[in-house]
Amino acid sequence: MASTERIRTLGRVWRSVALLYALLIFVSWPCAVAGKKKLYIGALFPMSGGWPGGQACLPAAQMALDLVNNRTDILPDYELELIHYDSMCDPGEATKLLYDLLYTEPIKIVLMPGCSSVSTLVAEAARMWNLIVFSYGSSSPALSNRQRFPTFFRTHPSATLHNPTRVRLFQKWGWTKIATIQQTTEVFTSTLDDLEERVKEAGIEISVRQSFLTDPAVAVKNLKRQDARIIVGLFYETEARKVFCEVFKEKLYGKKYVWFLIGWYADNWFKIKDPAINCTVENMTEAVEGHVTTEIVMLNPETVRGASNLTSQEFLAQLMSRLGGKNPEETGGFQEAPLAYDAVWALALALNRTVAPLRAKGWALEDFNYNNKEITAEIYRALNTSSFEGVSGHVVFDAQGSRMAWTLIEQLQGGSYKKIGYYDSTKGNLSWYGNDKWIGKKNQNSQPYLNNMTAVGCVLALAAVFPLGIDGLHIQRSQFPVVCQFRLWLLGLGFSLAYGSMFTKIWWVHTVFTKKDEKKEKRKHLEPWKLYATVAVLLAIDVLSLLIWQIMDPLHITVEKFTKEAPKEDLDVLIQPLLEHCSSEKMNTWLGVVYGYKGLLLLLGIFLAYETKSISTEKINDHRAVGMAIYNVAVLCMITAPVTMILSSQQDASFAFASLAIIFSVYITLVVLFVPKIRRLITRGEWQSEQQDTLKTGSSTNNNDEEKSRQLERENRELQKIIQEKEERVTELRNQLAQRQALRSRRRPSVPNQNQNHSVPSSHAEPPSYSPATDKQSLPPSFSNSSDLYQGEGKLSRNNCHNSRLPLLYK
Predict the structure, then answer these.
(1) Which residue range or ranges hold the G-protein coupled receptors family 3 profile domain (predicted)?
(2) What is the DSSP letter of 806?
């Protein structure tokens, strides 16, 4: 019995031992399998703010991490783990989060921020901790500065990569003047500075440059006032909605305008309800229609399997699964998600390449700390030489750590974006689909049809020189009336076409830019057919007057007899000199009517040319050259008409004077109007604006001083009204404050302050959590002596970060 009990007890012991052994195996097995050393990545994903790119970029990065950690050929002894926060695309918030990342265990081997403003802060501070910064969504050109950001890389190319594409499109469509409007942040300011340099090299002028901080209303109004047509907009998505709400109010959209925007907004960014604007979705949809976007090619268009063994379409399918059925158009950063995915892969491949070199030096990746420059240098070298196929295309970095890529050109047509081309800035190749809409292919600013009319008129006037030199010696007497008709009609029609088209241009410019504002706005967008109709009216008046003349009193031959002369030879004869004229019964009356009408047109043309000499307009940009031609024609005509009447009896002098006047006026007009165009066509291969080179005088300034003065006066009056309202509000608030202070002084008990001389003013009191210290052990050793950076401050925590000390991390 005892032995049986002993056997049972022994069995229970063995079962307990076996169970304990199995438990130990069960517990230790995952540790053996998952015995990888962890490497931590500190990431900032903006889930809200100006660019909520983290909504799609975070799931994409986590997808990449899962795949990398399951690969046995990439970092087999390590596991990458992502520690991430929401930066809200705000540098202030990012400062606090960066503090948490740096001063909270575990040590991070790499930092991954998004947003240019946040990346600027992080990359500038990271050099102090020997940290590599790898961004997936930063486009600021300032980040390409290797001296300022020596450890920065990004899979999102620099925003300056858009500018060669924009300039190429300006050249393709023949635009010579553009306008810009930007949000005043570093990324857009530096992008615009780069654009300004590039358009200057291409012979393109930025005529209007506007900026705003939070409210774009005044900037958009200024674009409207200055007649901007080709507009480049640089701002974040939230500000884009504000801008186009104002664009709708100012009617700064439609077929007469072309907007160039950034392409990394969400596809339905203009349909998202925003409490910051008071425009409906229909208003916004109407205002944004037809705008052009330039964006980096972020999704590989080819079906190839890269380093992750996924095609771009397979990546999108898996990403959609991770997003849980969310609408991609309403998910921030969906377009940039491939860049975040490839950023993780680029980092993993680079870290994998550092394992062997570090092992040869006796180091390992897990030995990294914020003082180890050798490991940082190895990671830098590996990233700098990275080259692989990703879901966003071929991944390679330039000397500044920026991604090199193609540019995609899209246009919003019918509420959705359509691809219209690609541009390879490295080779200058523009691949065009040809399905662009509402975009003019040639520069119509000089109204070429009016120029053609001027040229035809000049040809007719030159043709009139030949019948002027024909007399009875060359033709029969019966044919002479026909020659008279040719003289009259060729000169009349030639003058109407040549001078009439120039007069129409100068009249339209004067009508628009010298009237009151309300009339100017009504007539500022005069259609070209109205200009042609004006020339037709002037031509019809000439045709009608000449017809009436020829019907009522047709031209015929008259013979003027001179005093008989004796020949030099001794002959018993006298010679009767005769001179044949083209005349009619009331020749002086008809000439008076014609000369009076033409003279008034010439005087009015001179007046209009003088009045508009310093006006700059986008619609007719060669009006200064037209003004010079009008001066030339008017002066020669006013001199020639009376002189030829006086010299009518001296046929040789009269013909010479009239023919030379016609030839000079015609050729000077043609030279002034067309030689600058021909020169630009030869040297640049395209028609350019005549404003810059036609006249090298003070009157050829690009901006109308008088117009600018009037605009400044209007703006000054508006600002004075605003200042007056603000002053009234300030006065009101001061009165309220004075009343409250008086009320408090009556309520406050009068207690004598015996320690008045030793008291500390409350305004200088330190915050409750402030505790000065001189202990520098919490700082990285390489910066413990950096007195001018930390100024003897002690260790800070997130909860007691005083505002005055937040910038210290990135000064």
Answers:
(1) 444-697
(2) G
**Among 140, 34, 41, residue whose Cα is nearest residue 345:** 41
* Amino acid identity, position 678: I
Asked if 165 and 412 count as a contact pair (C-beta separation under 8 A), the reply is no
Task: Show the low-confidence residues of the chain (pLDDT under 50).
Answer: 1-3, 7, 10, 13-14, 17-33, 440-444, 517-524, 618, 684-704, 750-811
- Give alpha helix (H) positions in 612-704: 623-646, 651-684
pLDDT tens, residue by residue, 322-378? 998 888 888 989 989 999 999 999 999 999 999 999 999 999 999 999 999 999 999
> Distance of alpha carbon 789 from its chain centroid, rounded?
38
What is each CA distance from 493 to 581, 668, 691, 809, in whole angstroms? Answer: 21, 19, 29, 78
Q: How far is CA 453 from the centre of its chain?
A: 36
Classify residue 619 as exposed, middle or buried by CB count within 10 Å of its CB (0-12, 13-18, 19+).
buried
Half-sphere exposure in the Cβ direction for 281 (13 Å, CA): 6
pTM tops 0.90, yes or no: no
Identify the CA nearest to 125 among candidates 151, 105, 88, 144: 151
Distance between CA atoms of 808 and 811, rounded to whole angstroms? 5
Angle at 175 between CA 703 and CA 256, to 5 degrees: 85
- In the chain, % helix, strand, coil (3-state, to 5) comes to 55, 15, 35
Question: What are the tokens at 220?
Answer: 């958009």
Length reported for the chain: 811
- The whole-angstrom separation of Cα 444 and Cα 618 is 10
Q: CA-CA distance, 377 to 132, in Å (whole number)?
A: 9
Task: Count Cβ atoms below 10 Å from residue 290 Cβ, excluding itself.
Answer: 19
Query: How far, in Å, CA of 436 to CA of 423, rounded?
Result: 15
| Two tokens, residue 422 | 């690609």
Q: Show the 3-state SS of 701-743.
A: CCCCHHHHHHHHHHHHHHHHHHHHHHHHHHHHHHHHHHHHHHH
**Residue closest to 162 by CA, chosen among 232, 226, 70, 251:** 232
The tokens 């505790």 sit on which residue?
Answer: 771
E-strand stretches of 332-444: 387-390, 393-396, 407-413, 416-424, 429-432
